[in-house]
Amino acid sequence: MELKCEDGACETGEVNDTPIQKMDNKKDSLIYFGDPMCSWCWGITNNLDKIKDQYADQFDFELVLGGLRPGGGEAWTPAFREMIKGHWEHVEKASGQPFDYSFFDREVFNYDTEPPARAVRVVRDLAPEKEWDFYKALQRLFYAENKDISDVSILKQQCEQLGIDAKQFEILFTSPGYKQLVKQDFI
User: Fold this and answer.
1) Spatial CB neighbours of 123, under 8 Å, sequence gap ≥ 6
2) Is residue 47 within 8 Å of residue 10, measured between CB atoms?
3) What span, in angstroms and rounded, lies between the C-alpha atoms of 130 and 121?
4) Which residues lie below 8 Å from residue 86, measured CB to CB, with a gap of 6+?
5) CA–CA distance, 181 with 187 (Å, rounded to integer)
6) What does the DSSP 8-state code read for residue 155?
7) pTM, rounded to two decimals
8) DSSP type of residue 53
9) For the chain, how are helix, strand and coil distributed in percent, rounded to 5?
10) Model confidence over 47-90: pLDDT tens digits?
11) pLDDT attached to residue 114
């Protein structure tokens, strides 16, 4: 498979349909490191979906949460907002993914990526078959709809939309154990 990469965004070229032959008949794993609040991760989601679909019979897909900015902490200054906005504009231009720039009108924001990553980690255990859909939904909510995906009520609404037990989700999401467990992905 040929990847066409320009300005940091990659897309697949023509895909060779010849299956990969393996001696042991086990599928390889496609391991993807991503973060729900990573703009480039949002930018490549559609292409990654195509790869996952095209090679589903050859690869098991595994999402590892990258921990882009766990704990956040950087001051929400005009300079920080402009830096982030510049990244978003670049990703939007390269990928065509939608972005809601009213996000930058917020007076205060802690760009802490740990809570949404922890939410995805909880869904991995509650409904592993829905982990990728939940991850993508959080990206859409954050980037295209300007929702605070660290807000447990937003996360529970998304669980309900995907048929995931929102009460059980909240119990696990707020537990000290999952606050530690998600860090295993970050390593």
Assistant:
1) 130, 131, 134, 135, 159, 164, 169
2) yes
3) 11
4) none
5) 11
6) H
7) 0.85
8) H
9) 50, 10, 35
10) 999 999 999 999 999 999 988 888 887 899 999 999 999 999 99
11) 94
Say how far apart CA 121 and CA 59 lie, in whole Å: 21
Nearest to 120 by CA among 80, 155, 87: 155
Burial of 31 (0-12, 13-18, 19+ CB in 10 A): exposed
Show Cβ contacts of residue 19 under 8 Å, excluding neighbours closer than 6 positions: 57, 58
pLDDT band at 10 (very low <50, low <70, confident <90, very high): very low
Number of residues written out for the chain: 187
Report d(CA 95, CA 183) in Å as an integer: 29
Q: Pull the structure tokens for residue 28.
A: 């390889």
Q: Which phi and psi (to 5°) does residue 105 adopt?
A: -85, -10
Nearest to 124 by CA among 169, 58, 79, 66: 169
